[in-house]
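Is this the right way to post structure tokens for a design question? Let me know if I should format differently. Anyway, here goes:
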């Protein structure tokens, strides 16, 4: 099939130019190579496509019909190639990201509006899910995950806060009724709102202070799934159901308006922030490269 395309291209070049020598000049292919290609095409079709004389070359009736059908198709091919050239000069197209719900809620809102304003020809599609995903196999250009969940052989670019904390919180009414724990082990006597992981286990609560680490298995009246029902867990805590344990950033608006109060703040553990990751084994699509460049160009600030 590739050989047939080459022969068709040679025929169109010669027919448009009106000769093999002129066709060679405009195409950069030798006249003898063009002649050989046209001869092979004529042999394959069993039809003469060009009248050849010592002074000129002209299409036969069969050649004229073929040229009339080929030129619109070749125009579409050329337009398609030109559009790719435009993508190289001005990023455009679709960028598909797979991110955890926490990133969609806490990280991307500070980045997406500025990125889309800087690249108006890019359409961003974001899918939020917290389980492990083969981003390339699922049709995504890149993903956002924390370092312990990054796939191997990927390029990782920091995105969002470079350090975060897990935080415990409860409503003022709950603490007034049940008291404020002074040590993580005292949470055993409290109503703890749990989060069930994708593997079915309930996530443990971990605390650390001055070299001491404490791991708690939370138990209480409410268990939700990590990610999609986090807001339910936090609202329940704000309503006095129990103690919640989640990213500090998720709780900050509730702290600000007094709906929740920090619990055991001196014990909150720190962990590294998320990364944008993508394959380094292929050419980076222009929309993704633009997003990476945008992240790297943000400079100083709370996100980097």
């Amino acid at each position: 099939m590739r050989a047939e395309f080459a022969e068709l291209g040679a025929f169109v070049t010669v027919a448009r130019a009106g000769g093999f020598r002129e066709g060679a000049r405009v195409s950069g292919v030798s006249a003898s190579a063009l002649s050989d290609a046209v001869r092979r095409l004529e042999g394959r079709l069993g039809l003469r496509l060009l009248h050849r004389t010592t002074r000129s070359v002209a299409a036969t009736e069969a050649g004229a019909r073929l040229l009339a059908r080929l030129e619109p198709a070749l125009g579409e091919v050329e337009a398609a190639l030109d559009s790719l050239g435009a993508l190289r000069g001005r990023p455009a197209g679709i960028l598909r990201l797979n991110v955890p719900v926490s990133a969609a809620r806490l990280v991307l809102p500070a980045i997406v509006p500025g990125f889309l304003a800087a690249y108006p020809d890019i359409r961003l599609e974001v899918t939020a899910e917290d389980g492990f995903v083969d981003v390339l196999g699922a049709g995504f250009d890149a993903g956002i995950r924390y370092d312990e969940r990054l796939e191997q052989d990927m390029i990782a670019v920091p995105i969002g806060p470079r350090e975060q904390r897990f935080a415990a919180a409860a409503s003022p009414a709950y603490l007034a009724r049940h008291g404020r724990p002074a040590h993580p082990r005292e949470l055993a006597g409290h109503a703890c709102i749990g989060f069930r992981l994708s593997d079915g286990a309930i996530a443990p609560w971990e605390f650390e202070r001055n070299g001491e680490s404490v791991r708690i298995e939370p138990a209480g009246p409410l268990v939700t799934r990590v990610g999609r029902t986090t807001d339910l867990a936090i609202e329940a805590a704000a309503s006095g159901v129990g103690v919640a344990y989640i990213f500090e950033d998720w709780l900050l608006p509730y702290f600000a308006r007094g709906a929740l109060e920090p619990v055991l703040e001196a014990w909150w553990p720190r962990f590294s922030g998320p990364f944008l990751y993508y394959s380094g084994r292929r050419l980076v699509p222009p929309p993704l490269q633009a997003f990476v460049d945008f992240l790297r160009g943000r400079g100083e600030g709370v996100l980097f």
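Format looks fine. Someone answered above. Worth noting: Residues 61-89 form the longest helix (29 residues). The two ends are 51 Å apart (CA to CA).
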